[in-house]
UniProtKB/TrEMBL annotation:
Residues 476-489 have a biased composition (Basic and acidic residues). Belongs to the MAP65/ASE1 family. The keyword Phosphoprotein applies. Transmembrane segments: none annotated. GO terms for cellular component: cytoplasm; microtubule; nucleus; spindle. It holds the Pfam family MAP65_ASE1. This is 65-kDa microtubule-associated protein 1-like. Keywords: Cytoplasm, Cytoskeleton, Microtubule, Nucleus, Phosphoprotein. Residues 490-499, 527-543 have a biased composition (Polar residues). It comes from the Eukaryota. The keyword tRNA-binding does not apply. Signal peptide: none annotated.
Length: 584
């Protein structure tokens, strides 16, 4: 049986005992000695020990490796948890239990999950940092920074750190949005300014930065500090250019209008330059029409001004006489006497001699016109009062004619209007002395300030006022003598009636006596009423002559013959000589 097992070892279990028996049989068959057999057995035992030792060493080494792996796993687990900011993780066992392999098997899922979470977190950090790096590069103007991926600090991948990066990214995104909005505003301003100035917008913004033209998207436009600074400088330069061009165009427009007015240019020809003159009073911000300040338009206006200047030189006499006419009109309105013939002859002599430039002559005449306007303005207050004085004198003349009219109270057409006018005229006439005193005071003040005599159409105004006051006084004396004469005549008439009795004249009706009687009584041998009428008529003509600016002998006596009748004297004159007729 043993021999069979030995011969067929695969049929049964091969053990050390069976192998030893097999060895004994071989030794027996060979006839090995006992010493040889013992030596070989000792050798076999030694070799078995060596095998056991190697196995034990291998097992110990494997255990040490497993313990190191377990320790490394725990350290890695701790570092991952710390990096991710996970203070506790659900898959990590709280206490070490079981064999080493069991502990490793318990840690492995948590470790794998943390590794996956770390990879995701690193990717998120990398994305955020890439965006931050890109925006910082756009702001700094160094777009090549985005070519190098950011380095993620894997020791701190906590959500707190990630939120900090997110907050920083949001701040940068807001700054980028603000900068982009500012860039677009600058670009829009440059576009509008270039349109007004007639400049090429694309070439202008491309010089600032190539990304600013319309061929690139909005998000691709440069938002760097340098771009913003250059855009701001470009806008300032364009605004200054716009301001200078507008000033230049307004000067040209003013010159055009002056030249047109000088040469009476027709409206059709003026309308050709409406695009130039329409901005003559506009501010810089109000000019927004494209091409309104283009260089070719300014050059066109300059050429036209030059052409009109040359035309003005050829029409110098006509323009100079036109300015002379304006000057004469100002002097006429101010009642200042000049010699227009001599002035025109002087202008002709200057132009024909060529001793003075046309522009200098016109500038000198403009200065004369300005001085004349200034002098006219200084005389305005006095001239206004002179007009009031002459108007009052006219009313005084009319009032005297009205008072001599014996039919003024008849119920005729327009009689009530004359009554109202007479009342107003009496009020106005009573103001003449005060008006004359005011005129004298103002005239003397004016003359003292300027050291000149105030003339009215060549006649000294104070002389006119003095003569008026003197003749007014004479008129008052004449009126007093007329009243005394009338009283004496009335006294004689009363005495005659007492002696001879009153007898109505059959030749004159009662109504006719009321009108004719006083005029007949006033036409005695002294001839005073006739002189009074003559004075009034001359006075009216003289006042008109002074107001029209004609110099003649009547100008000196212009207002003198307007003698004021006081309200009391008028009332006594009416009650004494012109009885009011009874109503029918």
């Amino acid at each position: 049986m043993a021999v069979t097992d030995t011969q067929n070892p695969l049929l049964g279990e091969t053990t050390c005992s069976s192998l030893l028996q097999k060895l004994q049989q071989i030794w027996d068959e060979v006839g090995e000695s006992d010493e040889e057999r013992d030596r070989m057995l000792l050798q076999i035992e030694k070799e078995c020990l060596d095998v056991y030792k190697r196995k034990v060493e291998q097992a110990a080494k494997s255990r040490a490796q497993l313990l190191q792996a377990l320790s490394d796993s725990k350290v890695e687990l701790s570092s991952l948890s710390s990096a991710l900011g996970e203070k506790s993780f659900v898959g990590i066992p709280e206490e070490a239990s079981g064999t080493i392999k069991e502990q490793l098997a318990a840690i492995a899922p948590a470790l794998e999950q943390l590794w996956e979470q770390k990879e995701e977190r690193v990717k998120e950090f990398s994305d955020v940092q890439s965006q931050i790096q890109k925006i910082c590069g756009e702001i700094a103007g160094s777009l090549n920074l985005s070519d190098h991926p950011p380095v993620v600090d894997e020791t701190d991948l906590s959500l707190k750190k990630f939120d900090e990066y997110q907050a920083h990214l949001q701040e940068l995104q807001k700054e980028k949005s603000d900068r982009l909005h500012k860039v677009l505003e600058f670009v829009s301003t440059v576009h509008d300014l270039c349109a007004v100035l007639g400049m090429d917008f694309f070439s202008t913004v491309t010089e600032v930065h190539p990304s600013l033209n319309d061929s690139t998207g909005v998000q691709s436009k440069s938002i760097s500090n340098d771009t913003l600074s250059r855009l701001a400088k470009t806008v300032l330069a364009l605004k200054e250019d716009k301001k200078q061009r507008l000033h230049k165009l307004q000067e040209l427009a003013t010159q055009l209008i002056d030249l047109w007015n000088l040469m009476d240019t027709p409206a059709e020809e003026r309308r050709l330059f409406d695009h130039v003159t329409c901005n003559i009073s506009s501010s810089v911000d109000e000019v927004t029409v494209p091409g309104a300040l283009a260089l070719d338009l300014i050059e066109q206006a300059e050429v036209e001004v030059e052409r009109l200047d040359q035309l003005k030189a050829s029409r110098m006499k006509e323009i100079a006489f036109k300015k002379q006419a304006e000057l004469e009109e100002i002097f006429a309105r101010a009642h200042i006497e000049i010699d227009p013939v001599a002035a025109r002859e002087k202008i002709m002599t200057l132009i024909d001699s060529g001793d003075i430039e046309p522009t200098e002559l016109l500038a000198d005449m403009d200065n004369q016109i300005a001085n004349a306007k200034e002098e006219s303005l200084s005389r305005k207050d006095i001239l206004d009062k002179v007009e009031k004085w002459m108007s009052a004198c006219e009313e005084e003349s009319w009032l005297e004619d009205y008072n001599r009219d014996e039919n003024r109270y008849n119920a005729s057409r327009g009689a009530h209007l004359n009554l109202k006018r007479a009342e107003k005229a009496r009020i106005l006439v009573n103001k003449i002395p005060a008006l004359v005193d005011t005129l004298v005071a103002k005239t003397r003040t004016w003359e003292e300030e300027r050291g000149l005599s105030f003339t009215y159409d060549g006649v000294p105004l104070l002389a006119m006022l003095d003569e008026y006051a003197m003749l007014r006084q004479e008129r008052e004396e004449e009126k007093r003598r007329m009243k005394e004469s009338k009283k004496f005549q009335e006294l004689q008439s009363t005495e005659q009636e007492t002696i001879f009795g009153s007898k109505p004249s059959p030749a004159r009706p009662a109504g006719t006596k009321k009108v004719v009687g006083p005029r007949a009584n006033g036409g005695g041998s002294n001839g005073t009423p006739s002189r009074r009428l003559s004075l009034n008529q001359n006075g009216s003509r003289s006042a008109s002559a002074v107001k029209d600016g004609r110099r003649d002998s009547a100008r000196l006596a212009a207002p003198v013959n307007y003698v004021a009748i006081s309200k009391e004297d008028t009332a006594s004159h009416v009650s004494g000589t012109d009885p009011v007729p009874a109503s029918p």
